[in-house]
Model the fold of this input.
Amino acid sequence: MTIRSFLVPLLLLSTALAPAVSAEPSGALRQGSGEVSFTARRFGVPTASGIFDHVEGAVALDFEHPERSRIKVTIETVSLHTGTALVDGFIKGESMLDVGHYPTASFVSEQVSRIDGRSLVIHGRLTIRGATQPVDVSAVAERDPMGLRPGERIPFRATTAFSRNAFAIGRDVNVVDDQVDLAIRGEILR
Done:
């Protein structure tokens, strides 16, 4: 599935904004349905950003009982694009994502909590380079999901951040800070 940007976990996480009656499969990531991007900074100034073109996922969502919801996303790390071949090669290389040994990154939800009518927090586990760490994703629907009819689209945005060191990404790289920000934008069908 082609989707612009990085990680993980996130486009699917945003799919959690789609209301459903039960925790049966209620959605899948579709080609062109969103964008997952990452930004790395140095002293607070953005120094690298990019997208992942291939992301797949599935959602089982119960908006009335979010604790029953399940979200799973897989990203092909080799599909990373920053706009510069040299930077792409460096980030895909052994010291960073090591796409030769770790061709995918993934996110699996453990708990979904509703904050209000449009906002969710998705607690889950992010796996990059074979290491798994907990992350929290904040997702917001740009329209009220409960006010939409089946088949209508819900624009969303979601954000999270992770530590490069927690995943052994570029431990010897000091041109970017440890924290990497992820942003997901897109739309899902109700």
User: Anything to note?
Assistant: The first helix runs from residue 9 to 15. The domain at 9-189 is CATH 2.40.128.110 (Lipocalin). The CA atoms of residues 19 and 145 lie 6 Å apart. Residues 1-26 have pLDDT under 50 and may be disordered.
